[in-house]
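Async update (no meeting this week)

Hi team, since we skipped the sync, here's where things stand on the single-chain job. The sequence we agreed to prioritize is pasted below, unchanged from the tracker. I ran it this morning and attached the output directly underneath so nobody has to dig for it. Comments welcome in thread, and please keep replies under the output.
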Amino acid sequence: MTFARDAKILTEAGYRLNWVQPVDQFRWSAHIELAASFTLD
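Output:
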């Protein structure tokens, strides 16, 4: 939920979410990281 919280803060401050990409960085676990692009409108 950290990404959702942070994305909400950024979008409320005027940033636009361009894309989100899940990254399976750790093959030995089910943990997924997210990479995202935001731009300021």
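Quick observations from my side:
The chain has one domain: 2-40.
The mean pLDDT is 93.
Reply here if anything looks off.
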